């Protein structure tokens, strides 16, 4: 499955420390093969349908025609504000 970022999701990702970016990138590539087996469905879908928990960070995304669109990336204490 292809991974794409929204402009806001890409900005969020770029603001993270490089070591966190590397960790998230490797997990996203791993999870992209079967995203729904690793994802949790959001109860409040205003920011996105699904999320990954990767350590203390959350990746909020939607699934569209063969594409995983990353909407937001951030620390768990800040992502839902």
Number of structurally distinct domains: 1
Q: At the third CATH level, what is the topology name?
A: YaeB-like fold
Number of strands: 5
Largest sheet: 5 strands, mixed
- Major beta sheet, strand line-up: 1-5-4-3-2
Helix proportion: 25-40%
Question: What features would you describe in this structure?
Answer:
This protein is of the alpha+beta class and 81 residues long. It has one domain (2-75): YaeB-like fold. Helices cover 33% and strands 35% of the residues. The chain has helices at 7-15, 18-31, 35-38; strands at 2-5, 40-41, 50-54, 57-64, 67-75. β2 and β3 (50-54) form a beta hairpin. The model has no long low-confidence stretch (mean pLDDT 94).
What would the keywords be for this entry?
3 helices; alpha+beta; 5 strands; five-stranded mixed beta sheet; single chain; 81 residues; YaeB-like fold
Any chance you could write out the topology, listing elements then pairs?
Layout: E1 2-5, H1 7-15, H2 18-31, H3 35-38, E2 40-41, E3 50-54, E4 57-64, E5 67-75
Parallel strand pairs: 1-5
Antiparallel strand pairs: 2-3, 3-4, 4-5
In short:
With 81 residues, this protein is of the alpha+beta class.
């Amino acid at each position: 499955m292809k991974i794409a970022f929204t402009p806001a999701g890409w900005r969020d990702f770029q603001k993270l420390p490089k070591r966190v970016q590397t960790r998230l990138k490797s997990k996203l590539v791993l999870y992209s093969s079967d995203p729904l087996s690793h994802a949790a469905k959001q109860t409040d879908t205003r920011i996105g349908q699904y999320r990954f928990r990767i350590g203390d960070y959350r990746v909020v995304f939607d699934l569209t025609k063969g594409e995983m669109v990353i909407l937001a990336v951030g620390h768990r204490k800040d992502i839902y504000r």
